[in-house]
Amino acid sequence: MGRSASNILPSHPTFEAFQAVFKNYPVGQYILNSCWTAGASTLIAILFATLAGYGFSRFQFRGKGMMLLFILATQMFPSVMLFIPYYKLLGTYHLSNTLTGLILVYTATVLPFCSWMMYGYVNGIPKDLDEAARIDGCGQLRTFFQVVAPLTLPGILSTGIYAFVTSWNEYMFTALFTSSDMKKTLSVAIGQMAGFDSVMWNEVMAASAISSLPLIVLFIFLQRYFISGMTAGSVKG
Questions:
Q1: pLDDT tens digits, residue range 205-218?
Q2: Domains of the chain (ranges plus CATH)?
């Protein structure tokens, strides 16, 4: 026998769980950490991915095909294989338990696929525009920033959405590389709300709803760019 709608929906909805989350945990700091690490890694990834996509699309050089294949091959290995190299690298440069170290890890994680997306998108822009710009006296960088980059805006937005969502939801590296409670991101904090003897599911669900809200808003306003950019990056080459 299925339950009626009156039994499924709560009879007395409250916001006590949300109040408890903000009272018992430094959620504001967790949100700030997530916004800073995800936002910074997204901007860095967009910049380098766009330049990489333009370079692979417009220039011919020895080993280009192998480099593209290598970038794609990096996505075939599980992320856990990178734990020891990342750990040693961050330890060497004293970046363990820092937001800067997390930004570098996030950027390295999303950059290969972002580069492939931008490569496919830039390939869809006619090279005649580059030639026309050079005839008008534009150099290579000016051609990129004033002619090509504005035309890749949908691809840049879709790449940025992918990078931001991936960085925002990242759990494993953040949990391993942060020991201070004030350096945790929201995703790690939610995972650690479960105690050894009990789990306050109402608080966990409230924190999860808070974590999902920025992503929902992002998709509502930019979903058409994300879908068009993903399609272009996958079929143009």
A1: 888 888 888 888 87
A2: 26-235 (1.10.3720.10)
